Amino acid sequence: MADLKISQLTGASTPLAGTEVLPIVQSGSTVKVSVANLTAGRTQTSNGIVQGTAATGYDFSANTTAAGKTSTLLNWYEEGTWTPSISSLSGSIASVTNISGTYTRIGRLVSINFLFTIASAGTGSGAITITGLPYPVFAAQSAVGVGREYFNSGYMMQLISDTASLLFAQRYDGAYRGSNGDQFSFSMTYST
After folding, report:
1. Is the pLDDT higher at 93 or at 162?
2. Which domain covers residue 163, as residue numbers?
């Protein structure tokens, strides 16, 4: 393509091809730089910005940060579904149905929502256990979430991480709740 003045480039509604050459003043001299060279490493589409390289993202290091900061890079966004695995700390739950879950991850924060029904309680006791998290809980901290049994009793529930991949669900007072027909809904946000 022939050299163009900026005023001769295509309108903003038409993306540049990358072959156009633009004049740039560098150290007092005018040099020619292709649009492709200016945008190297950045993939742009009409649907937004696509991260071209893993572990890159938006860098907020120009901001004044608090003491103790460990990163200013936002490099992850993801949402999806997951299927929790439900059992009990002692004994066994005979049948669990209607199991589903969703999650959203922004940076290191993961927010999960899930629900399930204990169709048949069996001999389960101690605590309801949940595994199969979409991302593990960061090992240096514990995480706490909330829930509710909303069919039989209406009890509020607490959700506590025991390990990076294991959650305990108990009634608000620490008692076991897992009767026939109990339907649960939980939410939790944690760092991975």
Report:
1. 93
2. 77-191
Q: Tell me, what CATH number does 118's domain have?
A: 2.60.40.1830
Closest CA to 41 of 72, 18, 14, 9: 18
Q: Which residues contact 112 (CB under 8 A, 6 or more apart)?
A: 82, 101, 102, 103, 133, 134, 145, 186, 187, 188, 189, 190
- Residue-wise pLDDT for 22-56, tens only, equals 778 878 888 887 777 776 666 555 556 676 777 67
Are 93 and 149 found together in one domain?
yes
Is 42 contained in some domain? yes
Q: Where are the beta strands (DSSP E) in 63-143?
A: 73-74, 77-82, 85-90, 95-106, 109-120, 125-131
Structural domain includes residue 41 = yes
Distance between CA atoms of residues 73 and 4, nearest Å: 37
| 114 belongs to a structural domain | yes
Check whether residue 88 and residue 167 sit in a common domain. Answer: yes
